[in-house]
Amino acid sequence: MTSNSTAKTLVKTFLRTPHSLKTKFQAKQLLAQFLKTQPYSPSSISILISVYSNFNLLHPSLFLFNSLNSPPLLAWKSIVKCYANSGHFLNSLTCFVQMRSFGIYPDPNMFPFVLKACVFLKNLRLGESIHGCVIRLGLDFDLFTGNALLNMYAKFQSLQPNGGHKVFAFNVFDGMPKCDELCGTSAQEKGASIIQLDRITKVLEMMPKRDVVSWNTVIAGNAQNGMYEEALRMVREMGNANMKPDSFTLSSVLPIFAEYVDVIKGKEIHGYAIRHWFDSDFYIASSLIDMYANCARIEDSCSVFNLLSKRDDISWNSIIAACVQNGVFDEGLKLFRQMLTAEVKPRDVTFSSIMPACAYLTTLHLGKQLHGYIIRGGFNDNMFIASSLVDMYAKCGNIKAARWIFNQMEHHDMVSWTAIIMGYALHGHAHDALLLFKQMEMDGVKPNYVSYIAVFTACSHAGLTEEAWRYFNSMSRNHGIKPGLEHYAAMADLLGRAGKLEEAYEFIGSMHTASTAARRWKDAAKMRIFMKKKGIRKEPACSWIEVKNRVHTFISGDKSHPLYDRIFEALKDLLEQIEREGYIPDTNEDFHDVDEEQKKYIIFSHSERLALAFGIISTPAGTTIRITKNIRVCVDCHTAIKLISKVVQREIIVRDNSRFHHFKDGKCSCRDYW
DNA sequence: ATAGGGTTAG
Question: Is residue A193 classed exposed, middle or buried when 0-12, 13-18 and 19+ CB atoms within 10 A define those classes?
Fold first, then answer.
């Protein structure tokens, strides 16, 4: 027997039992044999195409497909499926339409792929037209097709009319549309209506048989569109139809309890998951991590994560986000490093989740590293990431970089506007902040709850009480935002700082307590997390500074730094220099029962001064010094640092717990109001 | 054919 005839026998054997091929490698080997021993009949070629498309091997499939003059149904079906499964949705649809123009009728297991393509291309009209095709062919009784239709309508539920997505109408039976029509660039039908719930219900009711997938699809659709009660009702209905919730059901339901901050119900689901061995499921685990994090139960998030034997990128993202949102920044950064060590590639979500940790901790070097990673990864144009970068640079003291990133952004949403406004507010540039707020309004971006907190912060740091009142009054009048606890707090703070104590008392007395009760559950949980963060911060006053990519932390009176002797010398030296400039220690704040000399020494070793002296001796002359302090800078240090900035001729930026101070040439940007 | 994670505040 020649080697060719052996090959031919081999190929024929496989063609009779195509499922005996188990690996891509085997499939590729078969192709070699096949090409050696051509020609074959169109039906044999089609079988081979179906084998390749099952392995999602697009190119060999296309190669064989193109060799056919009039491809049979199986060949078309395989190509449509292969295109859809490899993300080439437009090609998948074009191919389907082409097939129709050849007069070939689709079979039921073709529709799920075509409908999936419509979902990805956000082309509702095309989907509807395919639905029509399904009905005309009498295939709407098919379970898989029905489920795919449910999925399509569920996904289109969330698409707003005129929401920027492109929709185009054409009839599948009208022949071939042009490419640009399929992707909808002509967009004649932008006014596509929101798919009403009853559309989905109708499809569901028409289905002669429903399985768990049908229910899960509808439940997920409702859950993702904020129709929580409807979703939960469907879960009960599913149970009435004698169908057991599975891991898909649970991972759709968990985010609802996360949003409701209902840890009791969330735990019940967790229990159910454990009893049914679903708790090691990626999807459920990340929903559980998120649910616990939303309920301010970060310890429970961590236990879920730790019990996972395998973790995917989303598991990592979930736990990192959970830590950062709960103010456990160090742990978040630690996990981020572990994620990199585990060679899990960070994604866009990873960066926007971790960035606030750098912002809060003022670790500029880390933020910059992440920024570099973001640029290399091509994530620059992601709104979430850009907003978090604006925030990070502003909070790390570099308002110019923050503004630069903000200006680079193609579109600004309310979050990015708020981030930059808050940035200017924290730096004491109240007028820039308020100007940006006006620009935002002119841009047609509606401010939200948080934007007004930024506005009041800006007014507060500049003592602009009248402006603040104007904004406070217009907030509900012009934008329908009811003032909440945070706004009252910011206003009271502002009046207090401005010395208008009477007004502040009166204002607090007039507070609408009802407005807090009306706040969403989620905000209540956020408030709890915030309180927790404050509670955790029981450590003494401390300041930190980054030198050569390392963070050096100092507490008041701290002698533990290896360079303490040199720091002490530098402090003494600085003291002498500023005393020549007229500095007199202001020992009125904080103490009693301490003699003057001791007082002088205690003030002398305040944490920000230790950090400052260290910064001066360990960086080249003229370098800007950035210090972060966990509590407010005291009056005496403020005076001293102003003078130090003059005598050492350096710009010194101190961020305390409420704002930035830029010291230069003996002056501070806060104009001594903070 | 169905499911999970993100930015702005105090």
Answer: exposed
Residue nearest to nucleotide B7 (CA to C1'): A384
**Helix and strand element counts for chain A (H, E):** 35, 6
Q: In what order do the strands lie in the sheet with A550-555?
A: A550-555, A542-547, A625-629, A652-655, A660-664, A667-668
Q: Which residues contact A131 (CB under 8 A, 6 or more apart)?
A: A149, A152
In sequence order, which residues have a C-beta less than 8 Å from that of residue A193 and are 6 or more positions away?
Answer: A161
CB of A553 nearer than 7 A to strand B: no
**Residue A6 corresponds to which tokens in the numbers above?**
């052996």
**Res A529: pLDDT:** 64
Rounded-to-integer distance, Cα A497 and Cα A489, Å? 12
* Chain A 284-343 residues whose Cβ is under 7 Å from strand B: 284-287, 290, 312-315, 317-318, 321, 324-325
Judge whether A324 and A354 are in contact, CB under 8 Å: yes
* Separation in Å: B4 C1' and A510 CA: 44
Q: Quick one: pLDDT at residue A669?
A: 87
Give CA angle at A321 (A272, A653), nearest 5°: 160
The parts of chain A modelled with pLDDT lower than 70 are: 1-2, 159-197, 512-515, 517-540, 587-597
> Would you state the pLDDT for residue A328?
94
* DSSP three-state, residue A193: coil
Alpha-carbon distance of A433 to A522, in angstroms, equals 28
Measured CA A597 to C1' B7 distance, in angstroms:
50
pLDDT at A132: 93
Residue A485, CA: closest nucleotide via C1'? B10
DSSP β-ladder status, A625-629 and A652-655: parallel
Tell me which fold the domain A412-531 belongs to: 1.25.40
Q: Which nucleotides of B are covered by protein (CB under 7 A)?
A: 1-10
Give the Cα-Cα-Cα angle A153, A158, A162 (nearest 5 degrees).
105
The pLDDT of residue A159 is 66
The pLDDT value recorded for residue A318 is 98
Phi, psi of A627 (to 5 degrees): -125, 145
Q: Where are the domains of chain A?
A: 3-241, 245-345, 412-531, 542-668
* Chain A span 86-105 residues with beta carbon within 7 Å of strand B: none
**Predicted local confidence at residue A97, as pLDDT:** 93
Rounded to 5 degrees, what are φ and ψ at A452? Answer: -70, -30
Residue ranges of alpha helices (H) inside A261-363 are: 263-275, 282-294, 298-307, 313-325, 329-341, 348-361
CA torsion sign for A357, A361, A364, A365 is: negative
Q: How far is the CA of A251 from the C1' of B8 (A)?
A: 28
Tell me, in Å, how far CA of A168 is from C1' of B6?
31
